[in-house]
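This is your field. Pick holes in the following sequence-structure pair:
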Amino acid sequence: MNAGGMLNTCKSDGKWCFQWRTGEGSMTALPIVETQSGDVSAYIPANVISITDGQIFLSADLFNAGIRPAINVGISVSRVGSAAQIKAMKQVAGKLKLELAQFAELEAFAQFASDLDKATQNQLARGQRLRELLKQSQSPLSQ
């Protein structure tokens, strides 16, 4: 942001916009939206999603299960994400996100299954280990 810039505001289509007279710089916004029963397709969440470069979806169910940060990786997205990562990080993060999403799906399915084969049991155990590895202990509520 140019220190000599002047911030202009304008209102169009019922939305406020901000512009720097110098034509340089950017503005960061961190909108926080509470959903009703986790419904991101409702009017306000859907509109906020459409104008932001991504979203982190926090889940009360994950939080109550002791998973911190309680980020639902299945519906959290970033339009910048991998473009800002080095190649090695992209490979690791992509595989990890996929594995965690598959684990969450398999874990939900396994609740209703009474007889799981060895491969499924191994995949569930690996997913549980990954989840434990990624938990962050610095949460003030966990102390």
About this structure: Confidence is low (pLDDT under 50) at residues 1-8. The helical segments are 43-51, 60-64, 87-110, 118-134. Residues 1 and 26 are 6 Å apart (CA to CA).
